[in-house]
Automatic annotation (TrEMBL):
<dbReference type="GO" id="GO:0004473">
    <property type="term" value="F:malate dehydrogenase (decarboxylating) (NADP+) activity"/>
</dbReference>
<dbReference type="InterPro" id="IPR012301">
    <property type="entry name" value="Malic_N_dom"/>
</dbReference>
<dbReference type="GO" id="GO:0006108">
    <property type="term" value="P:malate metabolic process"/>
</dbReference>
<dbReference type="Pfam" id="PF00390">
    <property type="entry name" value="malic"/>
</dbReference>
<feature type="domain" description="Malic enzyme NAD-binding">
    <location>
        <begin position="301"/>
        <end position="554"/>
    </location>
</feature>
<feature type="binding site">
    <location>
        <position position="276"/>
    </location>
    <ligand>
        <name>a divalent metal cation</name>
    </ligand>
</feature>
<keyword id="KW-0521">NADP</keyword>
<dbReference type="GO" id="GO:0009507">
    <property type="term" value="C:chloroplast"/>
</dbReference>
<comment type="function">
    <text>The chloroplastic ME isoform decarboxylates malate shuttled from neighboring mesophyll cells. The CO(2) released is then refixed by ribulose-bisphosphate carboxylase. This pathway eliminates the photorespiratory loss of CO(2) that occurs in most plants.</text>
</comment>
<dbReference type="InterPro" id="IPR046346">
    <property type="entry name" value="Aminoacid_DH-like_N_sf"/>
</dbReference>
<dbReference type="InterPro" id="IPR015884">
    <property type="entry name" value="Malic_enzyme_CS"/>
</dbReference>
<feature type="domain" description="Malic enzyme N-terminal">
    <location>
        <begin position="110"/>
        <end position="291"/>
    </location>
</feature>
<feature type="binding site">
    <location>
        <position position="186"/>
    </location>
    <ligand>
        <name>(S)-malate</name>
    </ligand>
</feature>
<feature type="binding site">
    <location>
        <position position="441"/>
    </location>
    <ligand>
        <name>(S)-malate</name>
    </ligand>
</feature>
<feature type="binding site">
    <location>
        <position position="485"/>
    </location>
    <ligand>
        <name>(S)-malate</name>
    </ligand>
</feature>
<dbReference type="InterPro" id="IPR012302">
    <property type="entry name" value="Malic_NAD-bd"/>
</dbReference>
<protein>
    <recommendedName>
        <fullName>Malic enzyme</fullName>
    </recommendedName>
</protein>
Length: 585
């Protein structure tokens, strides 16, 4: 399979004295002020094929493929199965003691051999999720400037304002189905990481593929760089972003407006746009502004709400009660906290017929200034106001626990170690089986560890966290902590939306996803203290979530793929990308 560039070289290329091809285009000799043409090829073979991560199979190319695609001599003689390649790579990965080195090795693999990357991730999901996702992705973002090798997504900075559509057209794939976009201002619980937040859309989209089966080529990670207020980054000579303070107000709004319009123009009405890790002063507004005109989903507000609600629904069997029987207390009243709180109130409404406002009365939140109470109303951000109830001011979490007597304690503050021994002990004195969720990421920001939760509650807590913790043995019993992370939801949710051609995200779709996830928890899981099923069966879980989300979308009349497939679970499974190698002809 000859290529345009090769043909020219074969006909005209000459050997230089050192054995290399002559510098016929003057590329080697050109000085900085002389122009050269960056030649490209359109059909991959030979060396180009080995450098194309989408098609490269490395030592797995068969003898026939090596002949047909000019690969002879470019590979060692061995022909390995994909399974053997996987075994070798897993052994190599396990040899790295530093977690960030594993991350870098995984990113290298993704850039070298995409199918092998996804095979590893799918087959070893519990082991590799913490590497490509939280917690290690957090450290990777903090050090992104130093470890950055090749762009893995699209960078759209203020320099491109006015020509964002043009920038989108530079991405090599046109048939995009899902975009994860960040502006890097609230990366996990690590704060403003500016342009280095790119690790998050890249990581989230690799989960769209590995956990939800969305084709990798249909995924587009985007970072919008409007500057950063992180002085450490601005002073860092290796920082990869714009070296200026964040644009705000009209300049920011115009940038986002242009982006949203360009995305719709370039990819059409049904492109799913997932907002990720925006600061809350933009996140709520962007969601409210675009949810009626675009297919948008905010993972931190909506995905998190859906996954936590799923855990709560699943835990009802443990407590033998209904959601309406619980009293909830949150530490953290931002995107995650108020997003979860709203969805809980909505779910109770759907189940009991009671008004949402009424259900909010059993949901309390603490922010950095203490319990959210009605006397603070005037100074509260709009998303906190629905939860400002009548109560005297309380300025710390321990006193709030004592005053509110919650049955469920949820951490969404982004601040580590805030569920102290006294607080967990208080929860344990109030409840036979206190439900404690330490959702903040990465691990360093978790409100408490699994060990803290089990030890301080004498092994009685039902515990789950945003980043994974190892099982804990307490007084002879092994407790397995669950991972309450939106990674359970968005891949299957996105698949359901895409496969049904859903045109708008409705809260009922989130509720459907929660119910679907909760229904996947088995007796065996409950026995171990889990309120989430293990990630090992995530592809099956995602297919079920996708099916329930699609079913709800058809019911609401927002699905556009017609006729509705009869067996939606089977349809979801059939839609899913699998990473086994294809044979080339
Ligand atoms: N497990 C999961 O799937 C997810 C986890 N998260 C995690 O949740 C955390 C928060 O995210 P998000 O809600 O988007 O962030 P926000 O910035 O929107 O909200 C943070 C909230 O925490 C409050 N807060 C901060 N410090 C304290 C403190 N010392 N005491 C009490 N309250 C405090 C803030 O108070 P104030 O309003 O007064 O500033 C604010 O209300 C992050 O660590 C993130 O990684 C997020 C999404 C999903
Ligand atoms: C999990 C996630 O989305 C977050 O921590 O922001
Ligand atoms: Mg997030």
């Amino acid at each position: 399979m000859a290529e345009a560039g090769d043909e020219v070289l074969n006909l005209e290329g000459k050997c230089g004295v050192s054995g290399g091809v002559q510098d016929m285009y003057g590329e080697d000799k050109a000085t900085e002020d002389q122009l050269v043409t960056p030649w490209a090829v359109s059909v991959a073979s030979g060396h180009t094929l080995l450098r194309d991560p989408r098609y490269n199979k490395g030592t797995s190319f068969s003898e026939n493929e090596r002949d047909a695609f000019f690969l002879r001599g470019l590979l060692p003689p061995v022909v390995m199965s994909q399974e053997l390649q996987e075994k070798k790579l897993m052994a190599n990965l396990r040899n790295y003691e530093v977690p960030l080195h594993r991350y870098i090795a995984m990113m290298d693999l993704q850039e070298r051999n995409e199918r092998l990357f996804y095979k590893l991730l799918i087959d070893n999901v519990e082991e590799l999720l913490p590497v490509v996702y939280t917690p290690v992705v957090g450290e990777a973002c903090q050090k992104y400037g130093s470890i950055f090798k090749r762009p893995q997504g699209l960078y759209i900075s203020l320099k491109e304002k006015g020509r964002i559509l043009e920038v989108l057209k530079n991405w090599p794939v046109k048939a995009i189905q899902v975009i994860v976009v960040t502006d890097g201002e609230r990366i996990l619980g690590l704060g403003d990481l500016g342009c280095q937040g790119m690790g998050i859309p890249v990581g989230k989209l690799s989960l769209y593929t590995a956990l939800g089966g969305v084709r990798p080529s249909a995924c587009l990670p985007i970072t919008i760089d409007v500057g950063t207020n992180n002085q450490k980054l601005l002073d860092d000579e290796f920082y990869i972003g714009l070296r200026q303070k964040r644009a705000t107000g009209e300049e920011y709004a115009e940038m986002l407006e242009e982006f949203m319009a360009a995305v719709k123009q370039n990819y059409g009405e049904k492109i799913l746009i997932q907002f990720e890790d925006f600061a809350n002063h933009n996140a709520f507004e962007l969601l409210a502004k675009y949810r009626t005109s675009h297919l948008v989903f905010n993972d931190d507000i909506q995905g998190t709400a859906s996954v936590v609600l799923a855990g709560l629904i699943a835990s009802l069997k443990v407590h033998n009660c209904s959601l309406a029987d619980h009293t909830f207390l949150f530490l953290g009243a931002g995107e995650a906290g108020t997003g979860i709180a709203q969805l809980i109130a909505l779910e109770i409404s759907k189940k009991t017929g009671s008004p949402v406002e009424e259900n909010r009365k059993k949901i309390w939140l603490v922010d950095s200034r203490g319990l959210i109470v009605s006397s603070r109303m005037d100074s509260l951000q709009h998303f906190k106001k629905p939860f400002a109830h009548e109560h005297e001011p309380v300025d710390n979490l321990l006193d709030a626990v004592k005053a509110i007597k919650p049955t469920v304690l949820i951490g969404t503050s982004g601040v580590g170690k805030t569920f102290t021994k006294e607080i967990v002990e208080e929860m344990a004195s109030l409840n036979e089986k206190p439900l404690i969720l330490a959702l903040s990421n990465p691990t360093s920001q978790a409100e408490c560890t699994a060990e803290d939760a089990y030890t301080w509650s004498q092994g009685r807590a039902i515990f789950a966290s945003g980043s994974p913790f190892q099982p804990v043995e307490y007084e002879g019993k092994l407790h397995v902590p669950g991972q309450a992370n939106n990674a359970y939801i968005f891949p299957g949710f996105g698949l359901g939306v895409i496969m049904s051609g859903t045109i708008r995200i409705h809260d009922d779709l989130l509720l459907a996803a929660s119910e679907a996830l909760a229904s996947q928890v088995t007796e065996e899981n409950y026995e171990k203290g889990l309120i989430y099923p293990p990630f090992t069966s995530i592809r099956k879980i995602s297919a079920n979530i996708a099916a329930k989300v699609a079913e709800k979308a058809y019911e609401l009349g927002v699905a556009s793929v017609l006729p509705q497939p009869r067996d939606l679970v089977h349809y979801a499974e059939r839609c899913m990308y699998t990473p086994v190698y294809r044979t080339y002809r």
